């Protein structure tokens, strides 16, 4: 009997939490516009959540739970302010406002208004006055509706660290008098790229973890995707937002195929493509198309370009069908936009696939001559692979060993040393057979 | 996780209501697919002996008329979405999708 009750209590709590995940972003956003203070809004929202956890298990979830939470949060705020003797003029005005509104259906809050508030909240959570780690934590907390515990678990850091990061972030926003507003036109591009960076940071935190280590980490990819899709509806005319969504959809489509059951990473060329998620690939194609349709005369931005590269892989039925020429061109465009040795190294790999290892090696050697990526193990690793392919086995062995000594990843080191041994054997065989 | 919501109603629900629901799912970033189903359909019966019979499906009073595939953290969240369907009377079957990427994420 007691057990049955526990199950019901557990179900009731889960129902409240489900509403919370759906409503918390909108709730905090609406309260932040009302109070002008994101930190205060979050506290009021938490009060409403506590009330829901107390009452809903008895009463059931109300028909319009979002409106219920908003009303309770506002009433509690005003009660709190009244208890403090001096009700300052600003809060007094809010209280009068609420009483006048009381007859109206709070659910009638116009959808457009909610979306506007949500967008303001996105910009404030990702504000450049905050350190990147703080932006990520605040975004997950305020927009994702994640608890401090969940965020800590996802980022493999202690709970107090995240709690402190969020408290400090809210304090920083207040101290800097960050308005609850969408940035003006002059700041908009930079502020939007900060938002995109935060979403992609969240995604990569989940994506770079190998499968099976921690159940929360693929969830982090899902959460980033959800945030990205929400953002795409809030800013439908921003091509790079759709570019980022497309990139994440394509990358997430490969999640089920990226690692063995033991957690060993599987290279793109070796992945079982039947395990790629067709729904996400379809969504990626649609999002990239949406970005492209908006671009007009403008060229693709860095996210759209990376998405287009991912699309070349995602839409090739087999590795042999990959359009490497197109990928070379896309990496070229990306390098022109954001010159980077890592992009150039990727382009070298694509060139080797499109035009042969000699051509790829030329690109890599230019990088080596420039002294770029000196501590990046993938440079000697790629160079070794290409040297091996063109038959310069002795040089390949040296490069594989150098790459092995530079990587911090044990599995990768083993793999590189094995390839070095192969190269040594091939070198011995070819020198032995030479006249 | 990924869930199928399959809506069954006695009479066709107003399409505006279904559209409003779909937009809500899109704005929440959780919609993966959403489709309306035609009233009429065919019934393909496969027999153990390898036989196959195709018949016009009987038009029952209650029939499935729309489906959605949503991303949700758990069953409770999928149920919460189902609860929000703006139809007066109906039944929503909530099923977890267990294949492909849905199985692991």
Describe the protein's architecture and organization:
The complex is a heterodimer of chains A (435) and B (105). Chain A is mainly alpha-helical and 435 residues long. Chain A has 3 domains: 1-106, no CATH class; 110-235, no CATH class; 236-322, no CATH class. Chain A has helices at residues 2-35, 38-59, 65-83, 89-101, 111-125, 132-142, 148-154, 159-175, 188-207, 216-234, 239-253, 278-295, 302-314, 324-337, 341-355, 357-369, 378-389, 393-406, 410-433. Chain B is α+β, with helices and mostly antiparallel strands. Chain B has a single domain, classed as Dimeric alpha+beta barrel (Alpha-Beta Plaits, 2-Layer Sandwich). Chain B contains 3 helices and 6 strands; from the N terminus they run βαββββαβα. In chain B, the strands form 2 sheets. A 4-stranded antiparallel beta sheet of chain B has the order 2-5-1-6, with helices on one face. Chain B has a two-stranded antiparallel ribbon with strand order 3-4. In chain B, strand 3 (42-46) and strand 4 form a beta hairpin. Chain B is globular, with a radius of gyration of 16 Å. Chains A and B meet through helix 1, helix 10 and helix 12 of A and helix 2 and helix 3 of B.
């Amino acid at each position: 009997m007691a057990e049955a009750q526990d199950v019901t209590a557990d179900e009731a709590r889960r129902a409240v939490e489900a509403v919370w995940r759906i409503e918390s972003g909108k709730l905090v956003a609406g309260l932040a516009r009302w109070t002008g203070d994101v930190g205060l809004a979050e506290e009021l929202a938490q009060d409403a959540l506590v009330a829901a956890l107390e009452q809903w298990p008895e009463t059931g979830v109300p028909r319009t739970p979002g409106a219920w939470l908003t009303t309770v949060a506002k009433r509690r705020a005003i009660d709190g302010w009244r208890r403090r003797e001096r009700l300052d003029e600003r809060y007094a005005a809010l209280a009068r406002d609420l009483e006048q509104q009381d007859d109206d259906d709070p659910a009638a809050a116009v959808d457009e208004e909610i979306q506007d508030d949500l967008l303001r909240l996105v910009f404030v959570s990702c504000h450049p006055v905050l350190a990147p780690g703080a932006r990520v934590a605040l975004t997950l907390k305020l927009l994702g509706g994640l608890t401090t515990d969940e965020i800590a678990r996802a980022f493999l850091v202690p709970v107090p660290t995240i709690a402190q990061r969020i408290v400090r972030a809210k304090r920083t926003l207040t101290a800097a008098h960050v308005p609850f507003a969408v940035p003006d036109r002059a700041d908009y591009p930079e502020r939007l790229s900060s938002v995109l960076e935060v979403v992609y940071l969240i995604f990569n935190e989940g994506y770079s973890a190998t499968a099976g280590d921690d159940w929360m980490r693929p969830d982090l990819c899902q959460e980033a995707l959800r945030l990205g899709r929400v953002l795409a509806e809030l800013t439908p005319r921003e091509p790079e937002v759709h570019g980022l969504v497309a990139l994440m959809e394509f990358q997430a489509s490969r999640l089920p195929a990226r690692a063995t059951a033991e957690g060993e990473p599987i290279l793109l060329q070796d992945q079982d493509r039947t395990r790629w998620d067709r729904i996400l690939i379809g969504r990626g194609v649609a999002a990239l198309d949406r970005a492209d349709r908006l671009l007009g005369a403008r060229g693709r931005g860095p996210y759209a370009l990376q998405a287009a590269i991912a699309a070349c892989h995602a839409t090739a039925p087999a590795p042999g069908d990959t359009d490497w020429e197109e990928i070379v061109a896309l990496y070229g465009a990306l390098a022109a936009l954001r010159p980077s040795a890592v992009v150039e190294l990727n382009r070298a790999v694509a060139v080797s696939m499109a035009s042969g290892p000699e051509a790829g090696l030329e690109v890599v050697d230019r990088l080596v001559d420039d002294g770029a990526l000196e501590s990046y193990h993938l440079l000697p690793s790629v160079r070794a692979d290409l040297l091996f392919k063109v038959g310069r086995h002795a040089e390949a062995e040296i490069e594989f060993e150098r790459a092995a000594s530079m990587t911090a990843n044990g599995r990768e080191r083993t793999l590189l040393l094995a390839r070095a041994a192969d190269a040594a054997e091939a070198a011995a065989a070819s020198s032995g057979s030479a006249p | 996780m990924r869930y199928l919501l399959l809506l069954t109603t006695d009479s066709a629900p107003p399409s505006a209501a279904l559209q409003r629901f779909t937009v809500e799912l899109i704005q929440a970033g959780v919609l993966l697919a959403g489709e309306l189903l035609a009233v009429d359909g065919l019934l393909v019966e496969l027999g153990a002996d390898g036989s196959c019979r195709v018949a016009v499906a009987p038009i029952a009073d209650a029939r499935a008329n729309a489906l959605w595939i949503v991303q949700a953290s758990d069953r409770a969240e999928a149920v919460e979405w189902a609860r929000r369907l703006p139809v007066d009377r109906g039944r929503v079957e909530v099923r977890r999708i267990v294949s492909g990427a849905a199985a692991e994420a």
